[in-house]
TrEMBL record:
UniProt superkingdom: Bacteria
Name of the protein described by the UniProt record: Peptide/nickel transport system substrate-binding protein
GO biological process: peptide transport
Entry-linked InterPro entries: SBP_5, SBP_5_dom
Classification lineage: Bacteria, Bacillati, Actinomycetota, Actinomycetes, Glycomycetales
A Pfam family that the UniProt record links to this protein: SBP_bac_5
PANTHER family listed in its UniProt record: MONOACYL PHOSPHATIDYLINOSITOL TETRAMANNOSIDE-BINDING PROTEIN LPQW-RELATED, PERIPLASMIC BINDING COMPONENT OF ABC TRANSPORTER
Molecular functions (GO terms): peptide transmembrane transporter activity
Sequence ranges assigned to domain Solute-binding protein family in this UniProt record: 118-500
Length: 585
């Protein structure tokens, strides 16, 4: 049996699920790859590696390298990787993507995958597992779907003052029962369609608890918002998943015990699971070595962490590309970088292979350059759309040719001048506190110096990443996104001219039209083709250069079985927590 220590106090840390993150490792050192006992098959069988028979019973403590401020990931302030992980054992997801990008239904809530029953207007039918409840004897039903619609609508008429992480239900016009009570039909507005209809989040918090607490959520938009606040500040007494919260302190720890009303096919064998917050990966590794923590899949990893893990025989670990991807963005409103030819040449001059070899390869020895903005290199939807452009190749001759063709010149000291005679100079922003981020900055400055650009390196505190990006306070910046296999909404979030996340401020009417067409495409295969065409257009606009799918680690005590990392889920290793157990020797 793995032991669980009584949770202590953890420091607060913030990380976001579909938002920006500082990129780059936090130390230099000797690289290491996958292959520890239990994880040796993850490269070839990522969906089933570290599998095994489970013994009955056991207590597990799982560490996370950050904290959470509430229990309601509907809200933008709480839609963080840490909130998503701490709510994983009980949240009513429609399903999860596995490590190969395949969608796996949550059979504890649904009896079968959603079905598209009509295209115009778009209607999706959901079939509930007849045994699914909220863990308190109350079955899941129509009102729960309606509650989620209001919470995620983004409409003041439905939820006054609500701040949903994403208005995923903005296009919903009605939700009704189908032919039988276990069938729910969601109808969207005329003209709306999406190839990702199957993955829409249609459940969240239980409507009956909101009513029991006195919130007239269905008729009063202000009461609906108050109900959402209640679910944020109140430790949940309900569960649709394999575990229920037994005890918790927001931001510090949550202790779970098996949910006796769990309706999923997977039998829970653990007696207790604790998710505990830590202020650093170093602290988690120390606790792992002492046997007071049994595993973690932190949001970042350093070469020094890897070196420590490599000497700890009692810990199994694996290094692989994670859910985050780094990129270098250019501000298209900068007086120089408003020129696409200059932006193209800047990217052509950057040598990503050298950058990766000097940084990310210290963590993951086979770290590879990312060659598509939306699809991973090993994805079935992937097309290499970057190599032919020369962007990221460190090709100085090509970059100079691009500039010469556009009328740029160099003075006697090799400094680059615009066709109008102005010397080209701008800044490069990056989060400080990391040797690797500094190395990246130095390499990029060296590359651009080779084509005559005077680059000012201008670091900022990690805590200032959000304001720096959201205020577009940069000419050139290096940061990262975390995401999931869905790509339609991400493409619009990243690059639509009117998107609040289009920090490079690019305005391209043709790209906007392509994004609109992608959002309206129902056929998944056609959507993939359109998405790759959009990536090609983004490359043509030359204002976002992907670097790498950022390496991450999973680390566990060797007796922990059926635990593996999952880049495709924001919950990471907790995506299949019902299957966790102690290895049956």
């Amino acid at each position: 049996m793995l032991r669980a220590g009584r949770p202590g106090t953890g420091a607060v840390g913030v990380g976001a699920a579909l938002v920006m993150a500082a990129v780059g490792t936090t130390a230099c050192g000797t690289g290491a790859g996958a292959g520890d006992p239990g994880f040796e098959d993850c490269a070839t069988d990522p969906v089933a590696c570290n599998s095994g028979d489970r013994a009955d019973g056991g207590e597990v403590v799982w560490g996370i390298d950050g904290s959470w401020t509430g229990w309601n990931p509907n809200l933008s302030a709480e839609y963080t990787v840490y909130t998503l992980q701490v709510t994983a054992p009980y949240w009513p997801w429609v399903g999860q993507f596995d490590q190969e990008g395949e969608f796996v239904l949550n059979d504890g809530v649904f009896a079968r995958e959603p079905v598209l029953v009509n295209e115009s207007p778009m209607q999706v039918e959901y079939t509930l597992n007849p045994d699914a409840t909220w863990g308190d004897g109350t079955g899941i039903g129509l009102d729960d779907f309606v509650y989620n619609w209001y919470a995620r609508s983004g409409s003041e008429a439905l939820c006054q003052g609500c701040t949903p992480a994403a208005a995923t239900a903005a296009a919903v016009t009605s939700i009704e029962e189908g032919a039988t009570a276990d069938k729910i039909i969601v109808t969207y507005g005329d003209g709306y369609s999406s190839s990702e209809w199957k993955y829409e989040p249609v459940l969240s918090n239980p409507s009956h608890i909101a009513e029991d607490e006195g919130f007239d959520w269905e008729h009063d938009p202000a009461a609906m918002a108050a109900a959402e606040t209640h679910f944020s500040t109140t430790v949940p007494t309900w569960s649709t998943g394999p575990f229920k919260v037994d005890d918790a302190e927001t931001g510090d720890f949550a202790i779970y015990t098996p949910n006796p009303e769990w309706a999923g096919d997977t039998e829970v064998t653990l007696d207790e699971l604790t998710v505990k917050s830590f202020d650093s990966v170093d602290s988690i590794i120390t606790e792992l070595r002492q046997g007071t923590v049994d595993g973690a899949s932190p949001s970042g990893i350093s070469a020094e962490n890897v070196a420590t893990l490599a000497t700890a025989d009692e810990i199994a670990f694996d290094i692989a590309p994670g859910p985050g991807w780094g990129h270098i963005d250019l501000n298209t409103k900068n007086e120089f970088l408003q020129d696409p030819a200059l932006r193209t040449a800047v990217f052509q001059a950057i040598d990503l292979e050298e950058l990766i070899s000097r940084t990310y390869a210290n963590i993951q020895s086979d770290a590879a350059r990312k060659l598509n903005h939306l699809f991973r290199n090993d994805s079935a939807q992937f097309k290499d759309l970057l190599s032919a452009s020369g962007q990221g190749a460190g090709d100085m001759e090509l970059a100079r040719t691009t500039l010469e063709t556009a009328g740029y010149t160099w003075d006697g000291d090799g400094r680059l001048h615009t066709p109008g005679g102005d010397q080209v100079a701008f800044n490069y922003r990056f989060a400080d506190g990391s040797d690797d981020r500094q190395t990246m900055a130095d390499l990029i400055a060296f590359n651009l110096g080779d084509i005559g650009i005077d680059l000012e390196l201008k670091p900022f505190p990690v805590a200032d990443l959000g304001p720096t990006i959201s205020e577009s306070d940069f000419d050139m910046v290096n940061y990262g996104w975390t995401s999931a296999p869905v790509f339609v909404s991400r493409a619009s979030q990243y690059w639509a001219s009117d998107s609040a996340s289009n920090y490079g401020q690019n305005e391209d009417p043709e790209l906007d039209a392509m994004l609109t067409a992608l959002a309206a495409e129902v056929d998944p295969d056609q959507a993939v083709e359109q998405a790759n065409a959009i990536v090609a257009r983004v490359i043509e606009d030359a204002y976002v250069l992907p670097t790498v799918d950022t390496p991450v680690a999973i680390m566990v005590a060797e007796d922990l079985v059926n635990v593996r990392d999952n880049w495709a889920s924001q919950q990471r290793a907790l995506y299949n927590v019902a299957e966790w157990g102690i290895r049956d020797r």
